[in-house]
Inverse folding.
């Protein structure tokens, strides 16, 4: 290994390990949360799952803002522009307030209609509506967690946001148990536990951001129009990616939910069970965006290229191992979430199938992080839109509504979508020749 690579590899590992650990631990605690609800029966599981894709759609705007804040803060950090970092801190708070009021209000207003739109069984609609209403109440604090946490990570601090996330997850599990079982609130108790922990996490991330030296400053600095414009130029395509993806997931889930409660429960639990095996890729994506963004701000093309190769290599290698583990643990994982033998068998079959595509999914995720670090968000948007609607949704519709096929064929469509995105995102970097990854501004100008 060349000497110049070693310190960069060390920096990448120091920044990425907390984000990976955060994602894994948070997902494991989510497993416990899902298992607690799952013990209440298939209807309880479906009540929580049927609105989950709408929850992702609602959070897509917040996620877009967070990705923009992360990229801009990383660039400012690399350029040692502390004044810009302070302005980004203030912008994070302003955007959190706007998102919290608008998105939270709209979510609460639409909550009675969402289970109907998703084609949920009549027996679970009221419960599903209450669940979504309760978790939508603390939307301002959810926004603080995403935006303030992104600003701190962009300033190269991933350890303390990880600690907040893990602590909030532990609280969620404890409150889940108390509210679901001893208090007897069931699904409503699970929703209340989530809302309380989201509120705690938002407050802690705000305090952390205000105590981070690069972001704190001497006082409140109002962001200027140019900074707001930069943020929106980055955020809108990312918001578009999230919206297009989540709308696709909504349609996708709607198609699956129409196949019956048992099939939908198996599908939903299998998706949750798979999460811990690919979620580390999202932790690596965060670190990749922070470090490549800092390299762009610094104007160091060689450092950018090395970070890209490190990120891609480590992510694909990690996802190969996770795919192997997922294949052999499929039945055991499904059994954690439901006592239904029929659901376990069907879900395990899906997990063994998807295990082979984990490296492609990891490559797709980390490549998105590289594009975000470069400030190139439009091309990933088009890749996402074309792939999810032209591959996943189109062929799922054909499988379910035209050819009357089963859940196995639906998951083939999902895998094909992930592979397509990975290949399309990697294609422009092939122009880099032997180096593979370049920081050129005209990378995507075909």
């Amino acid at each position: 290994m060349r000497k110049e690579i070693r310190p960069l590899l060390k920096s990448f590992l120091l920044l990425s390990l907390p984000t990976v650990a955060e994602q894994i631990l948070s997902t494991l605690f989510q497993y416990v949360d899902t298992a607690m609800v799952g013990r209440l029966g298939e209807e309880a599981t479906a009540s929580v799952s049927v609105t989950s894709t709408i929850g992702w759609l609602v959070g897509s705007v917040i996620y877009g803002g967070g990705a923009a804040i992360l990229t801009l803060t990383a660039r400012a950090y690399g350029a040692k522009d502390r004044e810009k970092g302070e302005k980004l801190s203030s912008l994070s708070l302003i955007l959190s307030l706007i998102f919290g009021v608008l998105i939270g209000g709209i979510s609460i207003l639409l909550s009675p209609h969402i289970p109907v739109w998703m084609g949920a069984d009549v027996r679970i609609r009221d419960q599903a509506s209450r669940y979504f209403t309760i978790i939508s109440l603390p939307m301002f604090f959810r926004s603080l967690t995403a935006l303030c946490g992104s600003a701190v990570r962009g300033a190269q601090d991933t350890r303390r946001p990880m600690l907040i996330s893990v602590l909030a997850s532990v609280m969620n599990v404890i409150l889940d148990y108390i509210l679901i079982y001893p208090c007897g609130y069931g699904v409503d108790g699970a929703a209340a536990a989530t809302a309380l922990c989201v509120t705690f996490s938002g407050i802690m991330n705000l305090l952390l951001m205000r105590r981070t030296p690069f972001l704190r400053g001497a006082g409140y600095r109002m962001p200027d129009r140019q900074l707001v414009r930069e943020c929106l130029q980055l955020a809108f395509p990312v918001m578009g990616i999230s919206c297009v993806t989540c709308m696709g997931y909504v349609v996708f889930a709607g198609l699956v939910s129409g196949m019956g409660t048992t099939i939908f429960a198996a599908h939903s639990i299998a998706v949750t069970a798979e999460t811990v095996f690919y979620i580390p890729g999202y932790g690596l994506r965060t670190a990749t965006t922070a470090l490549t963004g800092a390299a762009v701000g610094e104007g160091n093309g060689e450092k950018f290229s090395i970070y890209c190769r490190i990120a891609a290599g480590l992510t694909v290698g990690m996802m190969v191992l996770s795919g192997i583990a997922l294949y052999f643990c499929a039945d055991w994982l499904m059994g954690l979430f439901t006592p239904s033998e029929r659901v376990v068998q069907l879900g395990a079959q899906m997990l063994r199938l998807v295990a082979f595509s984990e490296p492609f999914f990891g490559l797709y995720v980390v490549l998105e992080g590289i594009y975000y670090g470069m400030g190139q968000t439009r091309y990933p948007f088009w890749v996402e839109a074309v792939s999810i609607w032209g591959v996943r949704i189109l062929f799922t519709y054909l499988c379910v509504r035209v050819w009357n096929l089963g859940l196995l064929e639906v998951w083939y469509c999902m895998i094909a979508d992930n592979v397509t995105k990975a290949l399309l995102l990697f294609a422009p970097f092939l122009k880099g020749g032997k180096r593979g990854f370049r920081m050129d501004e005209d990378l995507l100008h075909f």
